[in-house]
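Dig into what follows:
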Amino acid sequence: MTRIIFTYGLISGLAIILTSLAVIVTFGDHGGALGYVLGYLVMLVGLSSILVGVKQHRDQALGGVIKFWPAFLLGLGIAVVASLMYVAIWEVYMAATHYTFMDKYAAAGLAAKRAAGVTGAAYAKAVAEADEMRREYANPLYRLPETFMEIFPVGLLIALVSAALLRNPKILPARSRPAAA
């Protein structure tokens, strides 16, 4: 089971990382609403390996039957490995870009406020919030768990759905192999 967790966790993490890098290269660090949608879509597709990993374990190791909790824990393990990979690669990306992400993110948010006509005390409040966000994000004890929590809830949801679906052996049943001649 550990092999399944690491294999599919690494596959999932790699798929998410490579696709996320493609999104960053295409849309930049701050793709706006489209960037968020694409980011979570990438996570959803990449974490679909949870379903594949649980199904493989059910079909090959357990004869086509798995209970909810073992399936959920297996999916959770895959989600944790993928999430940790995501965090590690994000830290590499942050170091490679000299930790400028939050400065650019805050500047883009403030520019959007200014373009929307926010001025005076409301704009000063937005500047103070952006400065606080920059200070918090500079601390790895804040940034690492926050990055983990970007992706892990998606994996948790997919693990729950996968366990609920795959506990029924009629859903995606194992294919029978033709008899050898």
Notes: The CA atoms of residues 19 and 25 lie 10 Å apart. The chain has seven helices and no strands. Helices lie at 2-27, 32-46, 49-61, 68-96, 101-115, 120-138, 140-166. The mean pLDDT is 91.
